[in-house]
């Protein structure tokens, strides 16, 4: 896709990995009335890529424009201090605190889009409490959107 190259024509690795046609099976499932849960979807790639130098948020969104619009986006909020207390923090490629702060700011910018249903959940809770809260939010959302048409992301 056109989004896989920068304005200079150089490839931008990873930007279009999950874009376009790879989401066609999701659209099929949604049109069949099947609920689909996706980890990270388009927002994570946009936030991480835009946190890098010289990539604006709007440019990073372009490969994902028109994907099925999620009915709900859950943002699991956890302070860096609490995350650091958990095992293996810092071992992943992007877990460097200054970069993570830029990623977080990108997510906050994405959350300003009032056409999307963002819900922030306190991820410091116990797994059981977190599960109950997420399930409750998801079930409530599924009831609300049951008979609504499928939207398109960022259109």
TrEMBL record:
Enzyme Commission number(s) of this protein: 2.7.4.9
Key word Nucleotide-binding present: yes
Signal peptide positions (record): none
GO terms, molecular function: ATP binding; dTMP kinase activity; nucleoside diphosphate kinase activity
GO BP field: dTDP biosynthetic process; dTTP biosynthetic process; dUDP biosynthetic process
Class in the EC hierarchy, top level: transferase
GO cellular component: cytosol; mitochondrion; nucleus
Domain Thymidylate kinase-like intervals: 26-134
Keyword Nucleotide-binding included in the entry's annotation: yes
Family: Belongs to the thymidylate kinase family.
Protein name per UniProt: dTMP kinase
Gene source species: Cyanistes caeruleus
UniProt lineage: Eukaryota, Metazoa, Chordata, Craniata, Vertebrata
């Amino acid at each position: 896709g056109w989004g896989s190259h920068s304005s200079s024509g150089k490839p931008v690795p990873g930007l279009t990995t999950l874009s376009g046609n790879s989401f066609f099976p999701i659209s099929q499932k949604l049109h069949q009335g099947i609920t689909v849960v996706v980890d990270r979807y388009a927002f994570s790639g946009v936030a991480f890529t835009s946190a890098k130098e010289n990539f604006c948020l709007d440019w990073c969104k372009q490969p994902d424009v028109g994907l099925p619009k999620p009915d709900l986006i859950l943002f699991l909020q956890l302070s860096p201090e609490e995350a650091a207390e958990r095992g293996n923090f810092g071992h992943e490629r992007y877990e460097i605190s200054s970069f993570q702060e830029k990623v977080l700011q990108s997510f906050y910018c994405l959350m300003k889009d009032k056409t999307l249903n963002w819900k922030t959940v306190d991820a410091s809770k116990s797994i059981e409490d977190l599960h109950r809260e997420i399930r409750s939010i998801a079930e409530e959302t599924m009831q609300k959107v049951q008979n609504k048409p499928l939207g398109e992301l960022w259109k």
